[in-house]
User: Fold this.
Amino acid sequence: MDMSLQSVLQSRLAMAAERAGIDASRASVTPVTDIRFGDYQSNVAMVLSKELKKNPREVASSILSYLEVQDLCEPPTIAGAGFINFKVLNTALSDAVNAIRLDEQLGVVMAPHSKTIIIDFSSPNVAKPMHVGHIRSTILGDSLARISRHLGHRVITDNHIGDWGTQFGKVIYGWKHLLNREALEKGPIAELVRLYREVNALEENDPSLRETVRHELVKLQQGDPDNLKIWEQAVALSWKEFERLYGLLDITFDERLGESFYNDALAPLVERLLVDGTAEISEGAVCIFFKDNPALEEKPCLIRKGDGGFLYATTDLATLEYREKRWKPDSVWYVTGAPQQLHFEQVFAAGRRMGVKTDLSHIAFGSILGEDRKMMKTRSGENVELGGLLAEAIERALSVVAEKNPDLPKGEQEKIARMIGLGAVKYADLMQHRLTDYVFSWEKMLSFQGNTAPYLQNAYVRIRSIFRKGDSEGVNVSLSPIMISDPAERALALKILKFGETLHSVMEDQRPNLLCLYLYELADTFHHFYEACPILKSDGEIRSSRLALADLTAKVLQTGLSLLGIGVPERM
Ligand code: ARG
Assistant:
């Protein structure tokens, strides 16, 4: 059960409203935005005043006359147009944080209904460069999976890799005529990309080659053993390289059902949809029309081309059917860039025509830009490769770590650098509202100041080092129940109490940036507390209470960062 201060206040308020004869269902309490007004507030009186045709301040005062909160706050006040403000008593605040201290979940309440959520993310294309869009999908999807699981949902992560596309005509032709085995061993994806590009260039110069290349694709699709073998190797080699990156990023998938998995389902699916009237033939192609959907009226979903070929949408519909049958999900989340919006609108509308009831969401995101504010590219104008990007992040972090901790053993420095470098890349992405484009900047993301992963990791490290320092100076660093009295302690305690609510707000619109902002504010509030309230230099119960508050802050920081897929070092 949700026992947080906020929800207790809310139910007391609802009871009072009911006694005042007012519809209480909309009595909500939220943290205040301006702490001069107290700690929590409710706008219930303003919300209801219109219906009641009464002055909101009057409504507020009639609710207050029934409100019993002496054990939790100072007498509530009415402010402005009719806000009810609460200032929590230090004793109640202490009780609330102490309850969180003893709670393994740190006050995070499970979602009231555990849902089955399929998260389709990362999904790079084999033998094509993984572009920055895949990077964002990978980081965002993983964090959403972690947070959903943490709140008690059943999550199935599925990497819907693009392992069956027209690119294989080129790859197979290239493999047969231009393959450099040694390069393939060293960097399979790079070599496959090279083959793809080279064949592309050859085709430009010699259009007659196109037919030959296309024929390799047709042969693959018809099950030619040689071509199938090349395809299998290309997929396996690419996957091995992707897996190395996922390992580095500490990301795993429950399933890896790529496009090829659905191959055999496509033809029968299209036939069935034709027979049952969901789809129709139009100019030789098979389409699903959406006649009573104004947005899609002129944008039918194409599921079979005139030449008999199937499309990206056909595979997505087959995938949707498979997922429904196998997992009976409540929701499916597709984490891909904003440019795929129309595709998903069509697939969702087609799915509904097919009778799919599952809640389907396109978790779209914006682009990563270079310093020139154009799509991020390498100097030579190519897509930025995830592998190289991560290596550079770690390398840059290593030089910072080595400079700050020259005495740490090399292996230790490298371990810390990995956490900092990878954390910085992930955080720089997650802290943005997912729909905004952002400029990729090494300096910013690796800075120890500002809203960055290193800043948060450093806040954690600082707390741990208080304990180490105490230990080494022979100070008793044992913890005791927290007693709140100083304003800086109050502020920190109130922040800690918001952790659970923050996770639930992330889920409302799949926005991990809300968690980032929360953690940043938490670290900031901690630093104010640290400056205002001596810890090791204070005595007895005050010291052990403040240590306990610091320790709890560290736990929330660590847990929050882990939900973003970011680790914390013990020193840095
Ligand atoms: N492979 C696709 C791409 O690179 C992304 C796949 C997303 N998932 C899906 N079910 N369509 O754009």
User: Anything to note?
Assistant: The two ends are 39 Å apart (CA to CA). The pocket of arginine is lined by residues 120, 123, 125, 160, 162, 316, 319, 334, 336 (CB under 6 Å). The CA atoms of residues 144 and 510 lie 7 Å apart.
